[in-house]
């Protein structure tokens, strides 16, 4: 029997979000209904609202979520009713060419719920990243649910569902930072700060945080493990590169991570790294962004340039591990929760996000 709950939707491009009744259908054979406990407010949700991802309005927003499995479809075996889960948007299929090659982190056919949630008039909703968790309950595929320690704070654990895992995974999985290496991270928003924390967890000896906000740079050192900071607000590209090299014995860092994704920071990350150094792009570039670098520089500098999708994570492997590390005090997951709000405050949270003064606002349902 279908259920009516409250959810936060974006009805038209750029319009303020609305809190409205939504209809959750009975789960399909491999679907589950999850009672949401907490969901982070991510830049991706704002991008959905503003039409920067697709035009399939109305959207049911929210995707960095944790909650309790409430109802399961008849064929579900992956989770059980009552399980505490973090939701993910990479429920690997196991059958596509990426999965069959042994690289499920690149799965090309990830699972989503088999049925659509709707408005009361029957209008189908498009859930953000196949999740739609700014709601009292949501419908997802069983593979989108990853069981973690039920003693974890839902507001913190849910953040692994997107942004924090993206930055953390960029450092640990994509860059494969080793103990004693040097790292420069461009941008200290939620993703960049997670990369700082990931570099610290991996044992990097020099961790340089670069941003234009002194408060963020202070937080990077005080809370997340940065060893050095550079405020790049009034510096040219060459000045930033020189400052990074000065902190790494003139050679440049072993790893650079661009968590901003604009041409300036990408160029700085490319040229500041050591010869044969590794560069990772995790900040999502705008659709019109271009990077002009001579081909000989790609060849002559060696090393590797990688993009990091979802931190190259495997939710079933990574989410429980990082929740456990957080519970042990070895990873500062809870420090990413800047404020706790309710479902009626999502639009205000978007405004707060634009000020750059929060790592994550988290909706508690």
From TrEMBL:
TM segment ranges: none
Entry keywords, A to Z: Metal-binding, NAD, Oxidoreductase, Zinc
InterPro entries: ADH-like_C, ADH-like_N, ADH_Zn_CS, ER, GroES-like_sf, MycoS_dep_FDH, NAD(P)-bd_dom_sf
A GO molecular-function annotation: S-(hydroxymethyl)glutathione dehydrogenase [NAD(P)+] activity
SMART domains cross-referenced by the UniProt entry: PKS_ER
Superkingdom classification of source: Bacteria
Matching Gene3D superfamilies: Medium-chain alcohol dehydrogenases, catalytic domain, NAD(P)-binding Rossmann-like Domain
GO cellular component: cytosol
Cofactor(s) this protein cannot do without: Zn(2+)
PROSITE patterns hit by this protein: ADH_ZINC
Pfam (any one): ADH_N
One Gene Ontology term from the biological process aspect of the record: formaldehyde catabolic process
Domain Enoyl reductase (ER): 14-363
Family: Belongs to the zinc-containing alcohol dehydrogenase family.
Protein name: Alcohol dehydrogenase
Organism annotation: Corynebacterium aquilae DSM 44791
């Amino acid at each position: 029997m279908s259920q009516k709950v409250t959810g936060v939707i974006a009805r038209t491009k750029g319009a303020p979000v609305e809190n409205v009744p939504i209809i959750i259908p009975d789960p399909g054979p491999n679907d589950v209904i999850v009672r949401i406990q907490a969901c982070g407010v991510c830049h991706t949700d704002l991008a959905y609202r503003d039409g920067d991802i697709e035009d399939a309005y109305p959207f049911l927003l929210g995707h960095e979520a944790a909650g309790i499995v409430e109802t399961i479809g008849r064929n579900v075996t992956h989770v059980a009713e009552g399980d505490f889960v973090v939701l993910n948007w990479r429920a690997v299929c196991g059958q596509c060419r990426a999965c069959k090659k042994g690289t499920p982190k690149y799965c090309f056919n990830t699972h989503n719920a088999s049925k659509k949630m709707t408005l009361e008039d029957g209008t189908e909703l498009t859930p953000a990243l196949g999740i739609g968790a700014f709601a009292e309950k949501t419908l997802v595929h069983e593979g989108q649910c990853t069981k973690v320690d039920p003693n974890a704070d839902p507001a913190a654990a849910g953040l692994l569902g997107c942004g924090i895992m993206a930055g953390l995974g960029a450092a640990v999985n994509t860059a494969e930072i080793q103990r004693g290496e040097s790292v420069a991270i461009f941008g200290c928003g939620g993703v960049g700060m997670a990369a700082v924390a990931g570099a610290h967890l991996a044992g990097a000896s020099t961790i340089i945080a670069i941003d234009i906000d002194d408060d963020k740079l202070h937080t990077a050192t005080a809370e997340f493990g940065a060893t050095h900071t550079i405020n790049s607000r009034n510096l040219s590209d060459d000045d930033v590169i020189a400052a990074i090299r000065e902190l790494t014995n003139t050679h440049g860092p072993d790893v650079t991570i661009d968590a901003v994704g604009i041409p300036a920071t990408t160029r700085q990350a490319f040229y500041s790294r050591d010869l044969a150094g590794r560069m990772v792009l995790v900040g999502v570039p705008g659709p019109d962004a271009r990077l002009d670098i001579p081909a000989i520089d790609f060849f002559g500098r060696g090393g590797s340039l990688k993009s990091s999708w979802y931190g190259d994570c495997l939710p079933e492997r990574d989410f429980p591990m990082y929740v456990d590390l957080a519970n042990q005090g070895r990873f500062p997951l809870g420090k990413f929760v800047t404020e706790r709000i309710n479902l009626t405050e999502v639009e205000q949270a978007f405004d707060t996000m634009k000020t750059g003064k929060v790592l994550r606002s988290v909706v508690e349902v």
